[in-house]
């Protein structure tokens, strides 16, 4: 797979430039109500991503990071942002403080973004360009869920899910363009789930609940009808062990 070869060659996972503007607290500017709204949105996304991972649809990459992420639009103080999970997410439960970013701007010419995060080292997922541009441009879509489990044309065909023709490197302009090309032929909301060849599946919804419903109906409930090459149970246990160890140690040091 092109992306794995690219990572193995030492190329960056994130292929756009990021500028951190400030923290969540600075963004809400002391407004408790806005802070709670942001916390609720973050919790909702964290729960959905854990659900995706526990069902094996966000497999672990060779570097131990999780191949899955999600996004949701949110308005803070009258301005719209895209809430995203962070790049290089570890397995297991996500933390509000360290695992999310709010992207305020994405420049498609410079291929760069501006974002807020609680911790300075947190960066938005490498799939930010795709999430941000889709949620900003596809009418009626407010949330998205993505996982690397379903990536083959044959599986997409068996599931009756549209699949892109060309393989594109994640995080690049070509990758986002391929998603829009797919949407031209299979428009949302008639179509809500897509497969990106050798990359993963992509779900669009009016909210996170709808994304979860699509995941349940189009993938999880089809598991006994067709063979879905998702994460095996043994692999899953290993992931959970790693999850228990890593975040705990990280927290302990603080
Ligand atoms: Zn991806």
TrEMBL record:
<dbReference type="Pfam" id="PF00596">
    <property type="entry name" value="Aldolase_II"/>
</dbReference>
<protein>
    <recommendedName>
        <fullName>Class II aldolase/adducin N-terminal domain-containing protein</fullName>
    </recommendedName>
</protein>
<feature type="region of interest" description="Disordered">
    <location>
        <begin position="231"/>
        <end position="254"/>
    </location>
</feature>
<comment type="similarity">
    <text>Belongs to the aldolase class II family. Adducin subfamily.</text>
</comment>
<feature type="domain" description="Class II aldolase/adducin N-terminal">
    <location>
        <begin position="77"/>
        <end position="213"/>
    </location>
</feature>
<dbReference type="InterPro" id="IPR001303">
    <property type="entry name" value="Aldolase_II/adducin_N"/>
</dbReference>
<dbReference type="InterPro" id="IPR036409">
    <property type="entry name" value="Aldolase_II/adducin_N_sf"/>
</dbReference>
